[in-house]
Amino acid sequence: MRYDYSEFDGEGFLSPDQLFPQPQVMEFILQYGDQALDAMQKLEDPDEQAFVQAMIDAGLLEEYEDEDGNTKLRITPRMLKGLQHRALLEIFADMKKGARDGHETRANGRTAERADGTKPYQFGDPISELELSATLRNAIARAQGEARRGAGGAAAGGGTRLPIKIGSQDFELYQTESSADCATVMLIDLSGSMMRYGRFIQAKRIAMGMQEMIRARFPQDTLEYVGFYSLADKLTEQDVPLVMPKPVSIRDYEVKIRVPLDQARASQDRLPLHFTNLQLGLRTARQMLSKSGAANKQIFVITDGQPTAHVAPVDKAGGEEMLYLLYPPTEETRDITLREAMRCQQQGIRIATFAMIEDYWGMDWVGFVDQMTRLTRGMAYYCTSEDLSSTVMESYLTGKKVKSFL
Questions:
Q1: What is the pTM of this model?
Q2: Distance between CA atoms of 25 and 49, rounded to whole angstroms?
Q3: In 3D, which of 218, 269, 195, 221 has the Cα closest to residue 32?
Q4: 135/120 same-domain check
Q5: Each residue of 145-178: pLDDT tens digit?
Q6: 157 and 211 co-located in one domain
Q7: What is the spatial distance between Cα 147 and Cα 210, in angstroms, rounded to a whole number?
Q8: Are residues 281 and 349 in the same domain?
């Protein structure tokens, strides 16, 4: 670790309120995203302007110029760290006592930590965990026993003879606790219905809190994000606090839209974006996880409805792909989404679905979650948005394999 020293300027150290954003600022940013930063820049009240300037001076916000030369505000790494830390504290405050502190794993992981005690060597155990002093004691005791037996049971004089011959039967190893590394991709539903009941706020809170927990307690694990709507995009840590559900732009009883995928990506401003393309989200996550060398891979899906969009090639030969936006949900979209989920399962990726069920009047889509869970041998949780954070966190910590209703 490197330290830099400089002359003290006489100013006091930053207070906790300056180091981390205040709770009301966090809630404001989570609720309004980029619009919150724009509003903070346009405040007219002198006291409010002074508050924003204080956050800029503390390194929580910074000004920059966009492509058009306009001055904008954005959150800094310090602000992001503060948002993640506060989100984690709020999550653990709501969790039940007794949650596990680590992952459950059925097999040994890639790394291990030494525990109290030793054990005899067994074929296949790592020699790197050899406990030398216990091994020497075993070798000396065995040599003395052989010497006594050779002398017909009489005490052998002269002590232990050198050199001491050590065999595999003498090896004593440190006890270890296996730890398994895990690569997780969190799929966050950004369809229009996520606006209801503050679902998207809870989804962003758990996404930030988990990143903080993994970085502090499970440094061998990784967490990445994908936002899925009519399309699907990889999200960075900086994107998560500011991302928002897509506004509903079509309210027709029946919608059937077909457009080339490349064209849809290039002209999103002309496309209704509030549909649910879980298939493309799963495919994006699968491609991301294929680049990981982690021993365990999993996808967390946070959603509130059945898929209403999918991608399919124009012909059997592949080539150009078409984006389909279909409402009401169709069997074609369901089947294509399930096939993509099966591809994930075949590549050893575990899928956990967290279904938010405040809309009791529209619960038919729960059947789709059940079907996907059975096909992929994954797990499903049915919870409200208020229970989402603690449910996801407990699932990550304990590795539950059983479907749960909350």
A1: 0.76
A2: 14
A3: 195
A4: yes
A5: 887 777 665 544 556 677 888 888 889 888 765 5
A6: no
A7: 61
A8: yes
